[in-house]
Automatic annotation (TrEMBL):
SMART domains to which the protein is assigned, alphabetical: HTH_MERR
Keywords tagged on the record: DNA-binding, Repressor, Transcription, Transcription regulation
Alphabetized Pfam families for the sequence: B12-binding_2, MerR_1
Classification via PROSITE patterns: HTH_MERR_2
Organism of this sequence: Pedobacter psychroterrae
Matches recorded under InterPro entries: Cbl-bd_cap, Cobalamin-bd_sf, DNA-bd_dom_put_sf, MerR-type_HTH_dom, MerR_fam, Meth_synthase_dom
Database matches in SUPFAM superfamilies: Cobalamin (vitamin B12)-binding domain, Putative DNA-binding domain
Name of the protein described by the UniProt record: MerR family transcriptional regulator
Residues in the signal sequence: none
Gene3D superfamilies the record matches: 1.10.1660.10, Cobalamin-binding domain, Methionine synthase domain
Record's keyword annotation contains DNA-binding: yes
Domain (HTH merR-type) ranges: 11-80
Molecular function in Gene Ontology: cobalamin binding; DNA binding; DNA-binding transcription factor activity; metal ion binding
Amino acid sequence: MFNICCLNVKKFSISDIENLIGIKAHTIRAWENRYDLVPPKRTPTNIRYYDEEDLKVLLNIVALNENGYKISKIASMSREHISTLVKQFKTDWKNDSVQILNLSNAAIEYNEDSFSETLGGCIKEMGLIKAMDIVLFPFMKKIGMLWQTGTIDPSHEHFASNLIRDRIIVEIDKVKKPKRKDPKRFLLFLPEKEMHETGLLFARYLLKKCGHETLYLGAEIPYADLKKVVDSYKPDYAFIVLTSLNLGRDPNKVISKVMDTLNVPLLVAGSLISEFDVLVKDQLKPLKNVCDMVEFLEDL
């Protein structure tokens, strides 16, 4: 995101807007040319830009368009009418496109109340598993991409992920772990250079619901410490989640190092696993999505 100093107002280029709302730049320009829809502003040196109010309007337009309203119809509406219609969708918690846009808008504004309302509404309506599958993981993937491309600041990603993290912990505490005759022991951790705990906490939630035992170590655990933990805890499985591009674009190197260190069956999930090919190995189970995670853990 380019920065132009003017009363600390945040300004977005059209490429920033493209990333934020998920609509191609040429389509945004077409909306402007045909319907005078959200025309950009210009700096004293004639550089085109959009401000935060423009972004809100564009997010609302996308929400209406994805719910059946034609752009030509939207263009005839006032901004107030557009906002009123979108508010009617706001509590349609199963509408994943609207809720991802709501979360994105709240994160950009650092609006904790709005973010928590959307987060809580989705989980209450759908349950944590479905909410993670169709809203929260896609949202986190989007927000991570926006951070990597510089469209938003790292603080926006941290704001969102910490609120989601806190809510998953609340949901974990609510679970009454069922008794089972043969619970398995799971060692949950993130390897060095991996700090995104959302997926790992979700795995802990699933394991508790299934009645299994967990030892949760959290993020960026040094390899030197893991062997001692395994010798002491004696897990049946280790579970890691790989999402950070800091690990490189070949997750197989990290997986191999973890397996060589632990020498126990390894479950591995995360966006890097869904996006890149994982080499087939004995004692390795890649889990590419939420359905894979749920099915495997329920079948143990």
